[in-house]
């Protein structure tokens, strides 16, 4: 078992969100408040070998979530996550062993 604090980033395209940059002072990227998440389609990604995972509490300093909307509906989503994950270890060669612990990211619906 191991614990990680990580910044998770994911990007995808939602063509419905393509916008005319001339309406936004020719900006090619718009930052969206995290409250917009409830109006957007977001991939259902999860860590399959996580024993627990959680987002920091909303008002804490470490709570960071970011949405960026780029031209042609490109979305970048970043958030901080705490994860406790499973890692089977073989300690037969200890103290000369090497362990590799992986995180497995999957989609609930797209398997």
Description:
Residues 2-109 form the Neurotransmitter-gated ion-channel ligand-binding domain. InterPro entries: Neur_chan_lig-bd, Neur_chan_lig-bd_sf, Neur_channel, Neurotransmitter_ion_chnl_CS. It comes from Acrobeloides nanus. By secondary structure, the protein is mostly beta strands. It has one domain (2-107): Distorted Sandwich (Acetylcholine Binding Protein, Chain: A), CATH 2.70.170.10. The chain has strands at 2-13, 29-32, 45-47, 50-54, 65-70, 74-85, 105-107. The protein is elongated and about 65 Å long.
Describe the structure using short key phrases.
Acetylcholine Binding Protein, Chain: A, mainly beta, transmembrane signaling receptor activity, five-stranded antiparallel sheet, two-stranded antiparallel ribbon, ion channel, membrane, 111 residues, Neur_chan_lig-bd
């Amino acid at each position: 078992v191991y614990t990680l604090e990580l910044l998770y980033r994911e990007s995808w395209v939602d063509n419905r969100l393509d916008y005319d940059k001339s309406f936004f002072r020719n900006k090619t990227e718009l930052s969206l408040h995290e409250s917009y998440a409830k109006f957007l389609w977001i991939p259902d990604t999860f860590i399959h070998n996580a024993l627990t995972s959680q987002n920091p509490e909303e008002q804490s300093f470490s709570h960071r979530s970011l949405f960026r909307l780029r031209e042609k509906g490109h979305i970048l989503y970043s958030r901080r996550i705490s994860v406790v994950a499973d890692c089977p270890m073989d300690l037969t060669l200890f103290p000369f062993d090497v362990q590799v612990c992986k995180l497995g990211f999957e989609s609930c619906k797209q398997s």
